[in-house]
Automatic annotation (TrEMBL), chain A:
The gene is Crlf1. GO terms for biological process: negative regulation of neuron apoptotic process. Residues 10-92 form the Ig-like domain. Its main location: secreted. It holds the Pfam family EpoR_lig-bind. SUPFAM superfamilies: Fibronectin type III, Immunoglobulin. One of its GO terms (molecular function) is cytokine receptor activity. Signal peptide: none annotated. This is Cytokine receptor-like factor 1. The keyword Disulfide bond applies. Coiled coil: none annotated. GO terms for cellular component: CRLF-CLCF1 complex; external side of plasma membrane; receptor complex. PANTHER family: CYTOKINE RECEPTOR (PTHR23036), CYTOKINE RECEPTOR-LIKE FACTOR 1 (PTHR23036:SF16). PROSITE patterns: FN3, IG_LIKE. It comes from Sula dactylatra.
Automatic annotation (TrEMBL), chain B:
Belongs to the IL-6 superfamily. It is found in: Secreted. GO terms for biological process: cell surface receptor signaling pathway via JAK-STAT; positive regulation of B cell proliferation. It comes from Sula dactylatra (Masked booby). Transmembrane segments: none annotated. This is Cardiotrophin-like cytokine factor 1.
Amino acid sequence: IIYKFLLPPPYLSAADPAVISPQDPTLLIGSSLVATCTVSPDFHLKAEDLYWTLNGRRLPAASYAALGPTTLSVALAHLNGSKQQSGDNLVCHSRDGGILAGSCLYVGLPPEKPVNITCWSKNMKDLTCKWAPGTEGETFLHTNYTLKYKLRWYGRDNTCQEYHTAGPYSCHIPKDLALFTPYEIWVEASNRLGVAVSDVVMLDILDVVTTDPPSDVHVSRVGDLEDQLSVRWSSPPALKDFLFQAKYQIQYRVEDSSEWKVVDDVGNQTSCRLAGLRPGTVYFVQVRCNPFGIYGSKKAGIWSDWSNPTAASTPRSERAAGGCDPKGGEQNTTLRRELKQFFGWVKKHAYGCSNLGIKLYDQWRVWLQKSHKTRNQV
Amino acid sequence: GDSWGIFTFLCAALCNLPALPALNCTEELGAGQSIQKTYDLTRYLEHQLRTLAGTYLNYLGPPFNEPDFNPPRLARAERVPSATVDLDLWRGLTDNARLAANYRAYSRLLCYLRALDGQAGTAELRHRLGHFCSSLQGLVLSIAGVMSSLGYPLPAGPAGPPMPSGTPVAPNDFLKKMDDFWLLKELQTWLWRSAKDFNRLKKKVPPAVVTLRLEARGF
């Protein structure tokens, strides 16, 4: 009597129809396996009534062998890495296609040492670390990563609990961190085939401090100046609690470009003026902060994220383009701009020469054109 | 608006008549809306499940993700409540029984779904599963809301009847995959059935209450 699986009732008896051995084995890539399927006597099936599939594909009968009246084996050689991390599905079927039993094969490689452990602390309150898996290729098996840390010279190992906070290979330690004593940090990778431990990284929390981006970033025009914008910001509030100085960096770009220009030497101020900009253009500006000189050290920390971009536009030039200007018209506009800036500076810093101004330059140019015409007319 | 004013007046008048049972009119209207909301939720979940099941079955690998896959259903799999029911039996269900069956089923299904291996699979799969569980939890609460607004008691315990202590966890990984397959199948069947359950309930809520729409103004 062959039990038909295609018809209801939907439930089989409580006994398993067959047993596969080995059940759910773990194997190294390239290894071979002989699996057996033994049918329960209640099912009145014989070895020749059975066949095997692997991941839905029927295995060739040439690889089968009857080891007994109710036991059929199959030989698998040079196994490839598992098709899915949940394991390859090796199934023993009865002749009509019904499933009698199955076994999940886990074929892969042991993990490699995780590498490139980098960590940072936000305002000395926590520690986040990320790393890269050692294997360039795949292990084919699910790999678990555990970040561990301990204070140097103190015994206890601690395990990080909050994973995936900054990408798939990261972990966050939210509290109970000590300063002034270095930590030893390492990552253990484990899968069904083994364990691999990364090299130990030693660091002092104070050396990897970062902070929030500056807040209240405002970008505004500088009067009528077409080529300048003024940027102002507040230092991140967390810095107030600590003896940090801060260094800042500004980056800006034109609206429709992806190229950022960086202003590096901003130092400790909370304002800066951008010059040499294009008139009548929208600019996006971002500022970031580096907590520098923690507790008096000369070391820099880690740059914060950039603040959200703030947009502002330079005033549009009032002068109409071209007309009588000779070929070098473009150059003259740049020159004129620079002269204007210069005169502005002169007014501020030099006393006397108060009649010097861009208006004087304009008058001179007009005079120059007139005299040029008259000269040509002659 | 004004139609509300008239409606509540009518309710108050009716409620004050000694012969009639006290009607909580706003609750009746609430039930109608809750039923609609629950119906909509089942349709939404059905849609979500299609993607989730596709991803999960691909994770289990062939033959689980093959369209004609139809494994035997072992008796041990009875822990998942079945949506399949005799047609006459289904038609004859009281509103209370109908709602209670849905409530119990989804509470159980939610438990099993949450227990699906949290470690394994890609981050994307875990994320989808988490999202689906939240939506399913919403459905359970929605059904509870309908039941309470109609004055029915919730079935005992948050997960309905306790799971029989004899139910084993799958003894091997392959059987666990089969359990997972049947869990998703049963979830799918329940969502199909619930849409019909709630459609039926929608029609049974008194139309006079749901469609009351008075144009008279200046009351």
